[in-house]
Amino acid sequence: MQPVATTFFFYLLSGAAILGGVLVITRKNPVHSALALIMTLLAQAGLYLMLYAPFVAGVQIILYAGGIMVLFLFVIMLVNIEKVQKQEQFNKQWLVGIVAAAALGVLFVLVYMKGESLFPKHVVRLAEESNTQEIAVLLYGQYMFAFEIASLLLLVAIIGAVVMAKKRI
Amino acid sequence: MVPLSYYLVLSGILFACGVTGFLIKRNIITIFMSIELMLNGVNLSFVAFAAQWGKLSGQIFVFFVMVVAAAEAAVGLAIIIAVYRTRETLNVDQVNLLKL
Amino acid sequence: MLSVGTFVLISIIKIVIALIVLLTAVAYTVWLERKVVGHIQNRWGPTRVGPFGLLQPLADGVKFIFKEDLTSPHVYRPLYIAAPMISLIFALTSIAVIPVGNWVTVGGIHTPLQITDVNMGLLIVLGITSMGVYGVALAGWSSNSKYSLLGGLRASAQMVSYEVSLGLSLIGVLIMAGSFSLRDIVDAQGGAYWHVIPRWNIFQGQIFAFFIYLTAAFAETNRIPFDLPEAETELVAGYHTEYSAMKFAMFFMAEYANMITVACLASLLFLGGWHGPLFGPAWLQAILPLFWFALRIFGFLFVYIWVRGTLPRFRYDQLMAFGWKVLLPLAIANLMITGLIVALKS
């Protein structure tokens, strides 16, 4: 189906994403930060849909918003955050932080100004209907070794997490 | 159709939010969330490039980034719990001794 | 091709019909549960309001609306109010991609019996149901009470753990159908072997997957024997201890709406969807698929209630051990064997 009102949806979703991103780093309460991050992730899933990547959007919601963020919320609920909220929120490196953010800001302005000429116009439109199949073929064909290494990484992470979080093994 | 550079600027803004949060926050959980924000900014640019060039490799990369993010979240949150259990603080400035 | 105006109009009509049917079904699932559990326990269940107590859901609804809406002073208000809404919204949204029948032509307009026909249907349902855990987790945290917090923690851990087995048990079906679209999966199950055994996935070697799905679905919807998040003997009422009146009713409706979604998915993926014998005049043939589909959902819900009336509750460590050490390896084994057979066949 031909997408409708792409500009409107782009501004809506990117506004939500940026709002969420700013709230993540400004809220005192980690639960609020986590919820703002979930908002950003969901808005990003919408943007993926607009970029002809429905499978990535689905995985983003299931894995990121439904899996990793639940884990974050779980840990926040386990620790006592009332004490955390009363403490100083920002450390002494705020100057470095602002400088880094400003440097990146300059980069964006450059990208924005030069962007039109640097990148080519659309070459081919991705097929939305067979997106899953094509990703599967690539993942289990060309990128098979990377896939195996990724699974090994996950195994190591599982063992590491259990070893570290458990009091006595 | 929204041009590619808009998506890149958006992904850059998200990345910058992550960098700023990572550098200035003290709460270790928020620092972790800032890292997730950075990874997501990068993911967005990957998908945008994939759509621009009509190649799916960009979307494949997003999966690997997500795998790394999941592994990092699992290990990182385990570290947070271990740190909280021994020191009862989430402030990274107070976690400055090698021994307990 | 439809114009944008008719498309929007048809969508709104479909959404309204689907919501009315779903909410009525939720109300009468509650009635069914009370009646069946009553008979299992040698009681009558509701009998006073209407014949066979059929108007009981209405009376319950009126009671929920007119009860005092208590909010304890120590709760964290914004999230306390938002949590039941999150639960209910995500529980009701997933119906949007679930097909209930074939394409129909009404007044010259050809449209599917489904709010929106997307080719990522199953992925969307899984995504939406995985978001539903936030309602429970936030309710537990924002209530600021230890029973609620324990319920919320248990719910989030349990739902994340069992989601893995649930997802893996569905992949066998996806391999057989070769598509994410719920409609394609149902279409692949049409017909019968030797005109006797229907070509449902459950009869095509996915019977283990079906039982894994059944078990994981019980845990996902927080039902007995996996209703640890609201175990009343130890946690008062778990994550909704501090909720009353309509807010509590929202959690209640979300739980039953989730049960119906799970039942819909089970009948679409394993039990052949709306396929069944068609006979009689044309109008009957148009109605029958809907009837067969509803019958399967009813059967599934009946099993839900039957199990509730029969089995005792798990202990929490048993629940986690069962999820990770039994169900997950079984799901992976099923996936590998299905993949191997499909690969050898082609």
Essential attributes:
heterotrimer, A: 169 residues, Four Helix Bundle (Hemerythrin (Met), subunit A), 2 domains, 7 helices, B: 100 residues, mainly alpha, Helix Hairpins, 3 helices, elongated
How would you sum up this structure in a few lines?
The complex is a heterotrimer of chains A (169), B (100) and C (346). Chain A has 169 residues and is an all-alpha fold.
What does this structure look like?
- The complex is a heterotrimer of chains A (about 170), B (about 100) and C (about 350).
- Chain A is mainly α and about 170 residues long.
- Chain A is about 75% helix and about 0% strand.
- In chain A, helix 2 (about 30-50) runs antiparallel to helix 3.
- The mean pLDDT of chain A is about 80.
- Chain B has about 100 residues and is an all-alpha fold.
- Chain B contains 3 helices and no strands.
- Chain B is elongated.
- The model of chain B has no long low-confidence stretch (mean pLDDT about 85).
- Chain C has helices spanning about 5-40, 55-65, 75-95, 120-130, 135-140, 145-175, 180-185, 205-220, 230-235, 245-270, 280-310, 315-345; strands at about 100-105, 110-115, 190-195, 195-200.
